[in-house]
């Protein structure tokens, strides 16, 4: 395995683990997770908590998809999936900004994540 592939796998694995952890946080500590996302919804409202739970489960599944591809050595497919998934943090940034959320989180967390994902996808596709 080349150094580029190793770096790509480490970055992709870290991203997969991070999104799984974020998903778990939405299930276990929705108030903290929502604040970290950049919005502060009323988590006492059951319908709001339901949506946060949906986000948590989908984040976990997304991380597992990437992990499964990496474990099976599907480097290029993982790169394409990672490239397609960049839509998620970009949309998250737009959602945070449109909701009056923290600009620092929108740009620093969500756009920053999209940038790391872009680099990771490129490395996986070049591997």
Automatic annotation (TrEMBL):
Q: Does the keyword Transmembrane helix apply?
A: yes
Among InterPro entries, the record links this protein to: DUF4267
> In this record, what's one Pfam family?
DUF4267
User: What top-level branch of life does the organism fall under?
Assistant: Bacteria
Entry's transmembrane regions: 6-28, 77-97, 104-126
Keywords from the named record: Membrane, Transmembrane, Transmembrane helix
Output this protein's name: DUF4267 domain-containing protein
Organism of origin is Mycobacterium yunnanensis
């Amino acid at each position: 395995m080349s150094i580029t592939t190793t770096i790509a796998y480490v970055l992709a694995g870290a991203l997969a683990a991070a999104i799984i952890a974020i998903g778990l946080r939405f299930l276990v500590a929705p108030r903290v997770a929502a604040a970290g996302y950049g919005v502060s919804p009323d988590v006492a409202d059951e319908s709001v908590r339901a949506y946060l739970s949906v986000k948590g489960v989908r984040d976990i599944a997304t991380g597992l998809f990437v992990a499964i591809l990496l474990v099976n050595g599907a480097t290029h497919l993982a790169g394409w999936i990672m490239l397609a998934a960049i839509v998620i943090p970009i949309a998250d940034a737009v959602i945070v900004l449109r909701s009056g959320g923290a600009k620092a989180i929108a740009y620093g967390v969500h756009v920053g994540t999209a940038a790391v994902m872009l680099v990771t996808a490129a490395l996986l596709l070049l591997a």
